[in-house]
Specification:
The chain is an alpha+beta fold and 507 residues long. Helices cover 38% and strands 25% of the residues. The protein is built from 11 helices and 16 strands.
Length: 507
C-alpha cells in the first residue's frame, strides 16, 4: 500500500505582520455598532455642547449711570497695532506735535487710594486719541520702577525704585520720524537710554503729553472699575519742543459709555496733576469689555473627551467581557503588539473624527458668540490650525489612554472613572475650585494630563499685566506642545503598564 506523506510548506512559519494586525483591529472597530456610535458621539458632543454653551453666552457689563443706577453696556475692545485686543483706557493730557520733537517732564509723586503695583503715570507719544492706536511711553509705576512701554505688548525696565519728592524721576521721549527713543534721569542732566522702537506708519501729526492710569486689583475686574480705583501723577518741568499746536487738552481715552469721569488734570504754574483709571496694556480677558479667547469655541471638548475615553476603554474591556480576548491573543500571541495595534487604530480614527468636530465647532461657536455681543480675540491661521489639530490630538491621546486603562483594569467602570478623574477633573479643580491655592492650581495644569489642553493656548503671560491668568482666559502655565507632551508621557506610561500586566497574567 502506498502512503502519501502530507504536504508541508518549506517556508518558515511566521506570525501575521503588524499591518495585518492593524487591519484586524480596524475591522473590529468598524463592525461593532456600539463602538461606531461612540465614535460618532465624539464630534457630535463636541459641536453640540459647544454650540449650546456659546448660544447662552451673553456679553455685557454694568456701569454707573448719572442717576446713580447701574445700566448694561455692550462688550467692546480695541485692536492694537499687532492685531491683538488691547486695553487702552487712561487719562490723557495732550497737545498735537507735527514732525520731530521732544517731550520732557519730571514726575515727583504717584499716589492713589489703593495704589496698584502696575499703576502708572508718565509721558507718551501716541498716533492719535483713537483707542488701539500706536504709542510709546515712559512711565513710573507703583512697584516696578521706571518702564518704557510701547504698542501694548512691549515693556523694558528703566531706573528702579519708587518715585517721591525727594527721589523724582525725569522722563524724556524723542520722536524722529517713526522712531521713538525713551530716556530717564535722576537729575535732568545725565540721561540714560531705556529703549527705542519704530512705530510703523506713525503719522506726521501725533499727540504727545501726560498720562495716568491704574488697573483694577487682580481678580476684581469690572467691580473694581466701577469703584473707580485711580492713581494720580504729579508733574513739573514739562516741556515740549517741536511744532506744537494748540493748548493742553484732557480726555479720558477709552471711557466706557456712561461710565462717568473719574479722571482729570489740573495745571498750576509750571506743574500738572493727572488722575486716571484703567490700563494701557494687552487685553488678557478680564474685566468689562474684555475679549473672548478662541478657546471658548471649544467648550464642548470635555463632553467629546469623555466619549473618546469611554470608547477607548470598551474597545478593550468588551473583548474581556465576551471572552474574545483569548481568540485575539491566539491569533496574535504578541500581547504588546495587540495593545499597540488597538491604541494606534483607535487613536487615528479618533483624531480624524475629533478634527472634523473641532473644525466645525470653532467657526460655528465663534459666530454664536459674536451674535451674543462677545468680542473675539483674533488669531492667525497657523494658531487656528494648531488649536484645531492639537485639540484633535488631545482626543486621540485620551482615547489611547482609555485603551491602556481598559487593559489594566479589565473593567469598564473603573477604567472610565480613573481616566475622567485624571484627565478632566484637574482642569475643573484648577479653574473653579476656591479651595485650591494658585500654586496648587498651577501645578495641576503642569503635571496632570489636563496640561495637554495648553495646546489651545492663545494668551501669553505678560510681566507688565497683573492677572490671575486662568485657562478660561486662554492661558496655561506650559507652552502648547509642552503641555501636550505631558499627556503623551501619561499615555505612554499607561500603555507600558498595560503591556507589562497583560504579559504577566492569564486572560
Amino acid at each position: 500500500m502506498t502512503t502519501i506523506a502530507p504536504y508541508r510548506s518549506l517556508a518558515p512559519a511566521r506570525r501575521a505582520g503588524f499591518a495585518q494586525l492593524l487591519h484586524a483591529e480596524w475591522t473590529k472597530l468598524r463592525t461593532v455598532r456600539g463602538w461606531l456610535v461612540g465614535l460618532l458621539l465624539i464630534p457630535l458632543l463636541t459641536v453640540g455642547f459647544g454650540a449650546l454653551i456659546s448660544s447662552g453666552s451673553e456679553c455685557g457689563f454694568m456701569y454707573p449711570a448719572p442717576n446713580g443706577q447701574f445700566v448694561s453696556g455692550p462688550c467692546s475692545a480695541p485692536i492694537g497695532p499687532g492685531g491683538e485686543l488691547v486695553q487702552d483706557h487712561f487719562y490723557f493730557t495732550h497737545q498735537a506735535l507735527t514732525g520731530n520733537g521732544v517731550i520732557t517732564a519730571r514726575i515727583t509723586a504717584l499716589t492713589g487710594p489703593s495704589l496698584q503695583p502696575w499703576a502708572k503715570a508718565g509721558i507718551i507719544v501716541k498716533a492719535s486719541t483713537t483707542p488701539g492706536s500706536a504709542y510709546a511711553a515712559m512711565l513710573v509705576t507703583g512697584a516696578h520702577g521706571v518702564r518704557m512701554q510701547w504698542n501694548f505688548t512691549e515693556d523694558t525696565a528703566g531706573m528702579p525704585g519708587f518715585v517721591s519728592a525727594s527721589l523724582p524721576r525725569w522722563l524724556r521721549l524723542v520722536r524722529v520720524g517713526d522712531t521713538v527713543t525713551g530716556y530717564d534721569s535722576a537729575d535732568g542732566s545725565h540721561w540714560t537710554e531705556v529703549g527705542r522702537t519704530t512705530l510703523a506708519g506713525l503719522p506726521s501729526t501725533v499727540q504727545v503729553g501726560l498720562l495716568a492710569a491704574t488697573p483694577p486689583p487682580t481678580g476684581q475686574g469690572a467691580v473694581a472699575v466701577n469703584q473707580a480705583v485711580t492713581s494720580t501723577g504729579a508733574f513739573d518741568h514739562v516741556d515740549v519742543t517741536g511744532a506744537v499746536g494748540g493748548s493742553w487738552q484732557g480726555i479720558e481715552l477709552g471711557r466706557s459709555p456712561g461710565g462717568g469721569d473719574p479722571g482729570g488734570f489740573q495745571q498750576t504754574g509750571g506743574g500738572f496733576t493727572v488722575t486716571g483709571i484703567g490700563d494701557i496694556a494687552p487685553d488678557i480677558g478680564e474685566g468689562a469689555g474684555a475679549g473672548t479667547p478662541i478657546t471658548h469655541t471649544l467648550d464642548g471638548v470635555f463632553a467629546g473627551l469623555i466619549a473618546a475615553i469611554v470608547v477607548g476603554v470598551i474597545f478593550v474591556t468588551a473583548e474581556y467581557r465576551r471572552g474574545l480576548i483569548r481568540t485575539t491573543l491566539t491569533a496574535s500571541p504578541g500581547r504588546g503588539r495587540v495593545i499597540a495595534a488597538k491604541a494606534i487604530v483607535l487613536g487615528v480614527v479618533t483624531f480624524l473624527l475629533a478634527f472634523i468636530g473641532c473644525a466645525i465647532s470653532v467657526p460655528l461657536d465663534e459666530h454664536l458668540l459674536r451674535s451674543h455681543g462677545n468680542v473675539m480675540d483674533p488669531v492667525s491661521t497657523l494658531t487656528w490650525l494648531r488649536i484645531v489639530a492639537g485639540s484633535a490630538a488631545v482626543f486621540a491621546g485620551a482615547a489611547m489612554f482609555g485603551v491602556a486603562l481598559g487593559a489594566i483594569y479589565r473593567r469598564g467602570a473603573s477604567a472610565v472613572c480613573t481616566a475622567i478623574v485624571v484627565i478632566v477633573v484637574p482642569w475643573f479643580l484648577a479653574v473653579s475650585s476656591p479651595a485650591l491655592s494658585a500654586t496648587v492650581s498651577d501645578w495641576l495644569l503642569r503635571i496632570s494630563p489636563s496640561a495637554a489642553l495648553a495646546i489651545q493656548q492663545v494668551i501669553p503671560k505678560y510681566p507688565q499685566v497683573a492677572s490671575d491668568y486662568l485657562p478660561s482666559d486662554g492661558f496655561y502655565p506650559l507652552a502648547p506642545w509642552a503641555g501636550f507632551a505631558v499627556l503623551c508621557v501619561w499615555t505612554a506610561g499607561a500603555l507600558w503598564l498595560a503591556v507589562h500586566l497583560l504579559r504577566g497574567r492569564d486572560v
